Amino acid sequence: MTEPTLKDLFQRTLTGEPVRPVVAEEDVARGKARQQRMRRNRVAGGVALLAVAGVGAAVLPAVVGDDRGNVPAADAGDPDGGDYPPQVGDDPVKQRMWDAIVAALPADVEVVEFDDPAFPVVPEAGPSIDVLLTRADSGAAYSMGVSLEPTRTDLPEYRPCTEPGLLEGTMSQWQNCEEGRDDDGVYRAAGDLVDLSASVVLAENDDTSVTVRWSTRPQPLPGSDLPASGQGAQPIDPALDRAAGAAIGDAVLEAAAGLDPAGLTSGVRLDDVVAAWPELRGVLEEAVGAELTPVGGDDPAVDVQDAEHQVGTISAEYTTDDGLEVELWFWQRPRASEPMCVEQIMQCSSITGGQELLGPPEAGGSGESGVAVGLRGDTWIRVSTEDPGDERPGTVTGGVLQPLDEVLSPLVRSPAGGG
Amino acid sequence: MQATDETSFKEFVGARRRALLRTAFLMTGDWHAAEDLVQETLTKLYVSWRRVRRHDDVLAYARRILVNAHIDGTRRPWRREQAVEAIPDAVGAGDPAESDLHTRDRLLAALATVPPRQRATLVLRFWEDLSIEQVADLMNCSSGNVKSQTARGLERLRDVLGPEAFVELRDA
After folding, report:
1. Which residue of A28, A339, A365, B115 pairs with A48 in a disulfide if CB–CB is 3.0 to 4.6 A?
2. Between B9, B18, B52, which is nearest A22 by CB?
3. pLDDT (tens digit, 9 = 90+) per residue, A247-269?
4. How many angstroms separate the CA of residue B98 from the nearest CA in chain A?
5. Of A245, A264, A283, which one is at a domain's C-terminal end?
6. Shortest Cα distance, chain A CAs vs residue B73, angstroms
7. Whole domain around residue A352: which residue ranges?
8. What's the CA angle centered on A165, arms A164 and A168, to 5 degrees?
9. What is the pLDDT of residues A356-411, one digit of tens each?
C-alpha cells in the first residue's frame, strides 16, 4: 500500500467544507466599512498619537548615533540663554518649561549634561524639550520628551484607552491605560507602550495640553559597563514612573498658565512644503540615481483637511525607467498629542517619533521609512521594485531621510502662524 | 476605490477565496475560524488594494496577511486554540464514511498539537506547495528557520500519528 503524502492527509481534513457560493460583494462591503471607519476616526481626531522627533537624539548623538552634528546650534552660548542648556537656549517658553521640569524631577534623578563641541545640540522648533535622565549613579540614561501645545477644544479629547482606533493591537497601542477628567477639570491619560519600552502621560486644561513620554529602556552612558540597548538591556530601574511623569506634566501645565495658547502652536505651512516639493523630489532622484516620472496628474497631490490648523497630506508617486516605484508622503496632524493615520498607505505616526505600519509589509523588494517634522508632521517614503534582488529600496530609504529632514525641518515655524 | 480597482478585487476574491479558506482551515482546524480569518484578510487586502495590485503576486501578499493575522490571533489568549488532551485511536476498519470522519478528526487533533508557526509552515510547504524560500519570504524569516520549523512540525505530527503516517522526508 502506498503511504499518503502530507498533502493527501490535508485533503482528507477538508471533509465537511461548507458549500457556500463566493459573494465578493460581501468582502467589498466589509472593506468599505473598514475604510469608512478609518475616515471617521480621522475626521474626529480619534486616532493619532504623540509623535516627537528623535527622543534624546538631539541630546546625546554619540550614544544614539545621530549624525546631525553638522547643523549649527544657533542658540547655544547665547548670553540670554546662558543659564540654560542648548536644547532650551533663549526661548522663553522652553525656559519656563525647563524650570518646571527640573523642579519636578524625583530627588535622585537628574538631567544628563553633555559638553561636547563635536556634537552641538540643536533646539527643536516649537515648545518641546528632549533630554536624557539618569538616576543616581546607575550609569544608565533614559530619554524623556515634554511637549506643550494649545488644547484643541474644538476636537474631542484624545482617548487612547477607549478609542485606540487603528492602533488597536499594534505596538503603539497604550497599555495599562487610564483616561478621564479629574476634579479640577484637567483631562488626563496615561499608558505604557510595552513593545516600544516607553510610557506616556497627557494632561490638558482648557488652554494648554502637555505630553510627557519617557523611555523605560536604558541607554548606557559613556564609560558605563551596561550593555547597549537591545542587547540584554532591561528596564530595571527607569528614571521615571507614572507618578513622576504626571508630576512633571502638572508642573509644566502650571508653568504654562498665562501663556498665550496661540503662541504654542507649531508646525509647517502646507504651502511651504508644496513649494519645497521640487527640492524633495531632487533629493529622491539623487538617492535613486535616476529621473523620477510622476504617476498620475498631481506632483504633488495636496489634500488640505483643515486650513486653519494646516492639517493635511501632500504626496506624490513616481516611477523610474527601470521599474523602481517611489512614493513620498508628508502629513501634518491636528495636534501633537495624538497620532494620525493615513489610510491610503495604512501608516500612522507613532508615539516615539517612529511610524506604525498597520498592514503587512509590502511584498517583493521594498523599503519603507519615515521621519518626524516638527511636533505634528511626518514624512513617509516607500521604494519598491518587483525584483527581489534589487537592493536599492533598502539603500534609498535608509539614506534619504536625513537629506529630506534637512529640507523640511527649516520649514517648521513656532508659532505656526508666525513669519 | 475606483471602479476598475473594485472589479479587479472582486475577480481576485472570486478566483482565490476558496483556496484561502482551505488554507485558513488547515491552519485553524475550524471552518468558522477560517471564515473569520479570510474575512479579516480580504478586508485588509481591500484597504490596501490600490497599491497591492501593482504587484504581480497579489496571492502571495494575501497569504502573508492571512498567516500574519493567524499567528497574531494565536497570541491572544481568548483566541488561542485548545490542544486536545487525547488523540483519537488509529483508523479502524468499519464503515468507510465513518472511517473517513474518524481519520479527519484524528488528523485535526494531531495538527492541533503543532505550534502555530510550525503548522503554518507545514501548510504552506505541503498544501500550498511553496518553496522554502517562498515561505521564508512570506513569514519574514530565514530559510534555515523554515527548515527547522518544518522539521519540528513533521516530527511532532509523526509523534502523534505514527512514523509511517505519511511519506514526507524528515529533511523536507
Report:
1. A339
2. B18
3. 999 999 999 998 988 889 889 99
4. 12
5. A264
6. 10
7. 270-411
8. 65
9. 666 655 555 667 777 888 889 989 888 888 877 777 888 888 788 888 988 998 89
